[in-house]
Every structure is written in structure tokens, then in C-alpha cells.
């Protein structure tokens, strides 16, 4: 409280002191400038001074008057008196002429060549130019000869609080992880004030939050923004709009202020487990589905985003763990169930699986909240497909003697419909494999019969294809190869290759010439 009272008093008295410094030269400036006089032997007027005056002048020679002050932005109906130059050589007889040169001489600053009064002719801005260096000299009015060496001095423009703080880098954007502890650093803002940072409190800034509490706080002097509430949840609110104020004069009443905005976004952390949209899924699949084909998708939703929302799926229980597999769709994060092995409706009509979704990237800070995984049950029903007939053997081998009678049965093929409906089967011969139509087949029972005589010496093997077709669905067709071997019988007498060999055989001397 004492410090606050002191600052308030300083703020009240500072403008009065500045005004007093400015006006004082016009009231009592001449003695202060007597330090710039020439040696006493150079003037008759100086000889007339009594001893007391000379002592006074000597004591005042120790004063330094090389600075004058003028308030910036001060204006009125008349030029502003900045100060007065005076030399001991001036007895008041108008023999002395004062000359001013340097920064702004004759334009901004004008000197009365008789009295030495210096006036500011224009309103001054310290932020544009803080000081002016000028040179004063006293010369003889008649001869313009210097009466003393030139003297350099400075006119300083005294600051007033005429500039509000500015955030030149705003508006700001910052990011901080959700669920951060209170006091976590968010960002730092910076305001600048064009007023004099050395003189007074015109550029002494204090920062505060106008909007954004109670979620965030700002350090009044460093402008560091920190979190002010624990457990801020991105899933509840992701973005905050914060208004920051910088006020000069140390934040006291009467100070100027500027504002900026800071958009603060909560970044995601893995603080949410995956959760299946439903606890039970039902899928159906045809028994003839191709291996690797997807039969259904499951979805475990995660309120987090990005890497924190990624999950992997596994089948952890069930009677179809070796029949099905589940993989993760990298784009949608769905679990895709596929067939690994062939299905058979007639063997097993349904399966029950238990699938699990688990986060890939775990944040240890939140493990106490429970396991970052979830499970669901998947029931899969296998539907009967209209399958083609199935032969009792993948191939058939039949044997027949070449002298077999026509229409004799060579053998039989059998096939059945594996479907529950069990459609009747009709058999036929693919005539592209029996162009000479040597064989027939009974369409009802699959018995193969001989249609034309056989001759082993002409053809030992006959390869034909038997076709089985469902009577209820002619598109369901199966084929099986049938190999028929013709067996030899003694149906050919010996024959001589030539008449000479036959003659030898008749003479009882075969093999001799």
C-alpha cells in the first residue's frame, strides 16, 4: 500500500514539476547562464561589480546549464518560452546580439537576439525527436564580432504520456495440451510503448486479462500467459478466445491501454479409451464367399484425434478364431472382418467371436482412468449357397474288353447336390470329348454304356468328360474326367510280313533262308 501511494503521488506531481522546469527559465534564467561569461578582464561592466557579486558569479560558474527542457505536445496561442540565454558581458545597453544555430534553429526554435529568450514555435513530439543540439553565441550588435566563444547546449523534449501501448505482433495464436496442470506455460505476449521508458511511468506497462478467465492467467509484468484451471478437456471445449490488455502508468488510473487477442487451442492427449458403438454385431455370409473377402465392419469410436485415436483390433475369443481374421482400416479406423478359411453351411451354420479394440499409443498419465480398450461380440451366420453337384470321385477309370457287346454297361459315375434342398442330378457326356459317339450315359443313374464296337488295336484309351447338372438350376454344373481303357482279346490271327516268310514256314524251316 505505501508503494501504491508513492506511485500515485509521483503521477500527480510529475506534470507539475515538468511545467515548473519549463517556466522557470523565463523567470530566473539569466543568473543560471552566467557560467558562460568571458573572463572578468574582458568587460568594463564586469569591473563595476562589487566583490559580493563577483563571489556570487564565481560560485555560479560551477553550474552547468547545458540542458533545457520543453514539454512535448505543448501548444498555446503564443510560442512556448523554452529558456533564456544571458552573458555577464550584457550590461543591458543593447550592445549584445544573441545568435542561435543548430538543430531546428530559426524554424523550430527562435531566439530573441536582444533578450536571449528562446521560444519553441511548433508543437514537439518526443517520439519523433527527443532532443535538439544547438549553439548559442553573443556577438557585438554593430560589428558582429564574437564577444565570447560559442557555447553548445541541448534542448530535451520532455515526455508526456501521449502514446498507448501497442501489440505489434498480435493477434496471437497459441497451443497448450489439454489436461495440463495449473500454471503450465501457454505463450508470452509483448506490447510496446513509444513513450520515454526512463522518465516517469509513461512506458511502464502492466498486463491483465479482460476475457479468458478463469481458464487462463497472465503475469502482470512479464506478460506470460499460463493455465489457471486444471483438467481442461479438449473434447468439451477445444478453443478459447482471450483478450489481453497492456496499460501504461504502471496500470494506474489515467494510464493509456491497448489490447490484443490470443486464440488458445487445446491440443489432444490420449485421455479417452476406444468404445464400440454397440456391444453386439450381427453379420451373415454366403458359404461360397472367396477367401480374404470382407464380411463386415465393426467400429470402436475414440473421442481423441490423430495418433491418440488409433486402435488395433483382435479376435480374442470364439469358435471361429481360425476361420476369421480382423484388420484395421487405416483411413476409417474400422475393424474389417475377413474369411481366412472356406465356409461350409452343411458343416457349421454360425460362429460367435469376441473382438477387442485397443489404443496403440498409450499415455501413462491416464492409465489410472481404466484400460484403453473395449470388447464387443460378433455373431456370424453362414447362409447356404446353391452349390454345384459333387461327384463321388474326382476322376474315374473304367476298363472294357474290346469285344464287349453293344449297350453293355462299362461303369457308373455318381454325384449329389450338397445343398440342403438336394436337387436331382442329370448326367450327360460332353460330346466334344466323344466325337465318334462311342459311349452313352444314363441321364438318371450315371451308367456308361457302349454305343459302337471297340478295337484295342485302333485305340487303347478313350478319355471322355461327364457333366452333372442340377435339374432345379441348370446353371449349377460339374464335370469329371473318365478314362476308359480297352482290354485286348485274341481276335487276330498271326500274319506274315511277306510271301517268302510264308514259304519257309510251310517247308518246316522257319527262320532259315
Automatic annotation (TrEMBL):
Domain of life: Eukaryota
UniProt-listed PROSITE patterns: CADHERIN_1, CADHERIN_2
Entry's Gene Ontology cellular component terms: adherens junction; axon terminus; catenin complex; synaptic cleft
Subcellular location: Cell membrane
Name of the protein in question: CADH8 protein
Gene: Cdh8_1
Membrane topology: Single-pass type I membrane protein
Keyword match Manganese: no
GO MF term list: beta-catenin binding; cadherin binding; calcium ion binding
A biological process term (GO) from this entry: cell morphogenesis
One Pfam family cited in the UniProt record for this chain: Cadherin
Record keywords, A-Z: Calcium, Cell adhesion, Cell membrane, Glycoprotein, Membrane, Metal-binding, Repeat, Signal, Transmembrane, Transmembrane helix
Ranges where the Cadherin domain occurs: 87-167, 168-276, 277-391, 392-496
Species, as recorded: Promerops cafer (Cape sugarbird)
Coiled-coil blocks: none
CDD domains hit by this protein: Cadherin_repeat
